[in-house]
């Protein structure tokens, strides 16, 4: 009841009201997602130095999932969340890992990426921001891991017509055999060939977590680097991050078309 | 680097807020008489984006320097502050001519997210090659629902807001130390079971004192070295216990001047207090001062600066 009052008052403050039956449908809160992930995280947590929740959609309940994490996982470290910047938030979380944790000799960081499909009002949610289902991804970044977070590049004020060139430049800079994992925000801006041996596209409907769930699969995939990228046309953010395999063998790059598998 | 405060326009006596939130009549007088609360200010005609813009618009040091702002952070208390996909922060980013800045909200430390935002802004700027790069941090929110209007036996919320600049070079205030601890066992706040609520109240002074001492230690200072405490604006009785635990019995070093006028303004309290302290000559060059914050959930934070 308290949560219904919270959301009803929040909507009213924006001149909106809950759609009929809004509170009857099942919703998955971020705390529930943390609870589902916690048993897998506890054995890994010799002590996280940093734990960041990155989310594009707001929580389905007004709670404190990162405080819950601090209770559920021993030594969760400095735990907080970044949000309100769409699909860019996970990239910002990784930048904070590089700039804050790694720069301060941290050894273990956790990035939780979450989104939920709950929309309590009848207002429009346009593609590609529309979320099809509740999903969470946990990235455990560990010193000495095979796949190492190498860089995060975040560009602002990127008009749609510049996206392709920026992406190509970034992929050229990475070099070596690489897998590109691209979000739906880039679809329509990156037609034709992509400068990568392997290209995977996140499915529509998971703007926040889609590319990161593909990263989990590519960990067991082809050798080389993995570049993840996404673009937010509304906010004009272009984000790219590079994970490099420690034993990555440099080979000549070739051009392959972007399959949409 | 600089702080600007935007006062909300309508003054509301604490009794009116408490009555509207359903507090029993016998409890209401305690808030003014013992807790030191008087009124708070709200801005019923202004939304969150407008509030952010107004706070930043008062920041004279920002004028003509917008190009130096690399990051725009909103330090946010409320777990959900806008219906998806409404995005007040980016509305404010556009209105302030800061589209070149990367903007995001920092949350989950509740009212302690302001100090976290200062820390994160510094970490991000440290990796920017340009020594003149800045981060603009915004704090302050809408008290749109009962649980955002009062924290029982603790505070009445207000909608005053702040904007401040963070840089990595030399400036009028230097960050010396930061400590923060999240006590996850209180994650259900403000809907804590009775026993947990009692445990929180019982341990509050100890937990806050611990993080204050850790921040002072991080700064290489002791309690006697702290010239002024710029606190979060809550129940003044709770502060007396904290001061005793910290070993700072002198109440004169605790700056509570704003408590009766502003109430507790989410993440903005310490920064509002900073500006008032400067205006009233309470901070002199070389003074070491402490900012504190406690967020529901529960996160305890303290930060030490030199003016």
Describe the overall structure.
The complex is a heterodimer of chains A (261) and B (307). Chain A is 25% helix and 26% strand. Chain A is built from six helices and eleven strands. Chain B has 307 residues and is α/β, with parallel strands linked by helices. In chain B, helix 3 (48-57) packs parallel to helix 4 and helix 6 (194-218) crosses helix 7. Classes of the chains: A alpha/beta (261), B alpha/beta (307). Chains A and B meet through helix 1, helix 3, strand 2 and helix 4 of A and strand 5 and helix 5 of B. Strand 2 (78-83) of chain A pairs antiparallel with strand 5 (102-107) of chain B.
Taking strands numbered 1, 2, ... along the chain, how are they ordered across the largest sheet of chain B?
1-9-6-4-5
Q: Quick check: average pLDDT of chain A?
A: 88
Radius of gyration of chain B: 18 Å
Question: How many DSSP H or I helices of chain A?
Answer: 6
- Strand order of the biggest β-sheet of chain A: 5-10-9-6-8
Q: Please, what is the oligomeric state?
A: heterodimer
- Give the end-to-end Cα distance of chain B, rounded to a whole number of Å: 11 Å
Order of helices and strands of chain A: HHEHEHEEEHEEEHEEE
Largest sheet of chain A: 5 strands, mixed
Count of DSSP strands of chain A: 11
Order of helices and strands of chain B: EEHHEHEHEHEEEEEHEHHHEE
**Shape call of chain A:** globular
Provide the structure class of chain B.
alpha/beta
Low-confidence stretches of chain A: 248-261
Protein chains sharing the most extensive interface? A-B, 60 and 52 residues
The helix content of chain B, as a percent range, equals 25-40%
* Number of helices, where a helix is a run of at least 4 consecutive DSSP H or I residues of chain B: 9
Major beta sheet summary of chain B: 5 strands, mixed
**Helix/strand-derived class of chain A?**
alpha/beta
């Amino acid at each position: 009841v308290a949560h219904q009052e919270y959301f009803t008052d929040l909507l009213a403050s924006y001149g909106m009201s809950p759609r009929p039956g809004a509170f009857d449908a099942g919703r998955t809160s971020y705390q529930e997602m943390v609870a589902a992930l916690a048993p897998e995280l506890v054995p890994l947590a010799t002590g996280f130095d940093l734990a960041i929740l990155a989310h594009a959609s707001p929580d389905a309940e007004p709670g404190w999932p990162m405080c819950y994490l601090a209770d559920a996982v021993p030594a969760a470290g400095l735990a907080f969340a970044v949000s309100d910047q769409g699909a860019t938030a996970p990239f910002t979380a990784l930048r904070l890992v590089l700039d804050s944790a790694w720069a301060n000799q941290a050894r273990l960081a956790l990035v939780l990426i979450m989104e939920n499909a709950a929309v309590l009002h009848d207002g429009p949610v346009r593609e590609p921001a529309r979320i099809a289902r509740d999903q969470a991804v946990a990235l455990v970044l560990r010193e000495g891991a095979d796949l190492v977070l190498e860089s995060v590049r975040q560009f602002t004020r990127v008009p749609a017509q510049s996206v392709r060139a920026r992406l190509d430049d970034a992929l050229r800079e990475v070099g070596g055999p690489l897998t590109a994992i691209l979000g739906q925000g880039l679809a329509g801006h990156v037609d034709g060939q992509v400068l990568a041996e392997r290209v995977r596209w996140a499915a529509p409907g998971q703007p926040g977590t889609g590319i990161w769930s593909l990263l989990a699969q590519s960990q067991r995939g082809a050798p080389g680097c993995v570049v993840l990228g996404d673009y937010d046309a509304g906010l004009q953010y272009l984000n790219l991050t590079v994970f490099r395999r420690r034993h990555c063998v440099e080979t000549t790059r070739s051009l392959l078309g972007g399959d949409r598998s | 680097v600089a702080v600007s405060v935007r006062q909300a326009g309508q003054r509301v006596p604490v009794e009116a807020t408490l009555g509207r939130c359903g507090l029993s009549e016998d409890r209401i007088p305690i808030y003014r008489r013992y807790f030191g609360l008087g009124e708070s200010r709200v801005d019923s005609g202004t939304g969150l984006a407008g509030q952010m813009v107004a706070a930043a618009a008062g920041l004279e040091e920002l004028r003509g320097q917008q190009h130096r702002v690399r990051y725009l952070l909103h330090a946010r208390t409320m777990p959900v502050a806008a219906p998806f996909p409404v995005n007040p922060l980016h509305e404010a980013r556009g209105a302030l001519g800061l589209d070149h800045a990367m903007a995001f909200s920092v949350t989950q430390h509740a009212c302690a997210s302001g100090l976290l935002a200062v820390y994160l802004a510094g970490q991000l700027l440290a990796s920017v090659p340009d020594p003149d790069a800045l981060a603009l941090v915004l704090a302050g929110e809408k008290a749109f629902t009962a649980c955002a209007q009062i924290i029982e036996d603790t505070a009445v919320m207000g909608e005053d807001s702040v904007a401040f600049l963070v840089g990595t070079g030399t400036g009028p205030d230097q960050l010396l130390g930061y400590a923060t601890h999240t006590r996850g066992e209180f994650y259900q706040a403000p809907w804590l079971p009775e026993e947990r609520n009692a445990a929180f109240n019982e341990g509050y002074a100890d937990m806050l004192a611990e993080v204050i001492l850790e921040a002072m230690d991080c700064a290489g200072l002791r309690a006697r070295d702290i010239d002024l405490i710029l606190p979060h604006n809550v129940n003044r009785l709770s502060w007396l216990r904290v001061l005793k635990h910290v070993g700072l019995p002198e109440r004169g070093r605790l700056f509570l001047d704003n408590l009766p006028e502003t109430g507790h303004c989410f993440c903005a309290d310490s920064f509002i207090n900073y500006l008032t302290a400067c205006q009233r000559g309470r901070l002199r060059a070389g003074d070491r001062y402490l900012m504190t914050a406690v967020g529901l959930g529960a996160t305890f934070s303290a930060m030490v600066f030199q003016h």
